[in-house]
Request: fold
Amino acid sequence: MKRMLSLALALLMTMSLLAGCGSSSGSSTETPAAAGDASTETPAEGKTLRLAWTVAYDENHPYTVAAETFKQYVEEKTEGRIAVELYAGGQLGGDSEMLEMLQMGTLDVAVTSTPTVANFTNVLVGCDMPYIWQNDLSAMYSVLTEGDMGRKLLDRMQEEIDVVGVSFLYQPFRHMFTNKEISSISDLKGLKFRCMQTPVHQEIFTAVGMNPVSLAYNDIYSAMQQGTIDGFESDAVGAVTSKFYEVSKYMTVSGHFNNTMVLLMSSSAYNGVSADDQAIIMEAGAEAAKASYDCSVAQNDTAIQTLQDNGLTVCEIDMQPLYDAVQPVIDKYSSEIPEVAELVAAAKEAVSK
Reply:
């Protein structure tokens, strides 16, 4: 009797597995099954990589564009040997949790940002240095993707934390949002300003006279409504998605930093595929970088116009006092971390061209 029950159970499990498998269709244009159960079609005798990120699935967002591009390239070039499942919206955890999962080998690929990596190694801290790109995304792309610097930094990061850096990715530069018009650096003095919970960012906003407040991104809207904070920073695309024009009146064009994105892969997953497929994965990373860059360039102007259409005023101020105020922060980290000094120098050269 027990043997008959075991056989029946095995048959049911086999039928269930067969029902869930099929041939991969390459690029996914639909929201990944509330982002987690789509793209589950796994090729016979193939490998499946799970790729996760924290931002909600949005076909116009650089995170999504990068993930979809990576997925399509890998699946097409490996002819189905490797499938890629997409998990958006923090389904598999926050940025720090995902990075730890990559280290343990329980997650294959993730899109995260350099402030998160800074909690594990200081190699990429240079990406968070303020104003070094002067709001020039093309200069940043030329250094981190088209030049050798990006690859050097990612390889050094891998030595430090045993996670493969596939590529840098891109999103628009970040600006300051307030209910008070900012016409000069003196207007920033004393503002309770939300920033990420990372020492570098807190030092940056302190240097220009603000009182930085560490607060979860999802709490910004209510904090602005309640007056808990006087302002915050965000890129224009994210501000539109979060409807920040409803709780702020002004966006001051600052471009202080980019919250640079990186596409990371667990060493165990990377070493678990052939050398040919490893090359394809790296090529896919380069394609994802270009796609996120193009998306950022295209969506930034559209997002700024949307903000204005919804009543938000876009302001510009003299940037030199801001550059001068944060220079001690740049000098400090450049003297302490060789990779920061290298990146700052490369950025200065690229911006001056």
